[in-house]
Amino acid sequence: MIFNLTPRQKAILMAVIEDYIMTGEPVGSRTIAKKYQLGLSPATIRNEMSELEELGLLEQPHLSAGRIPSEKGYRSFVDYLMDNKTLDESELEMIRNINTKIVNLENILEQSSRILSAILDSVSFIQFPEINKEYVKHFQVLPVSSYTFLIIIVSSTGKVSDYMIKTSFQIDEEHFERISNYLNKNLKDTPLSEVSKKLKKLINNDLNDDNILKNIYEGISSIVNNSKLF
Known about the structure:
This protein is an alpha+beta fold. The protein has helices spanning 7-23, 29-35, 42-54, 71-81, 89-96, 105-120, 173-187, 195-206, 211-226, and strands spanning 58-59, 68-69, 136-145, 148-155, 160-166. Helix content is 50%, strand content 13%.
């Protein structure tokens, strides 16, 4: 995403973003003119801010407010306007030592956050996508023993969660393939926020004659209801 901004627009965009980060309040043209000494009048700054808003780089929460950065505005700031920092050897070594064998998204982000905090000497935090924007990509049910099985759930964001379930009855291995296929057929691409409701419907409508499968699905449903992933 590359915008052909004038030097004046770049300076105003940077000022809005920096001021909004510091104050958390919408930024007006008079604030920019007074605090950032750009040599521009409030009227000129206001016109340029309107142009930046039309480009999708700024937003106005309501008509009487100043502007705030949009997602595109932040992205442009990071990609094109920030000064690049050269990492020293100790910082590069931390990056080289990243454990590339980690496949769980939560652990990857946690490790990345720690390294980022150390490099920037600042607090960093992780924010996962909103649940209503995430959906099921894949289910896999695997036998661990005759009375235990493992459920693996992969979300659309790449987050992998696994859960161990113990039963009071023996399960034949042939059931696991059947369960995996059934889950993927009926729940793939389902928003995570709707998985529990859809599972309950499947149990009530489709599985009344199969006590083993019904118990397994009830176990899955219970996990989904209590899981932070869902």
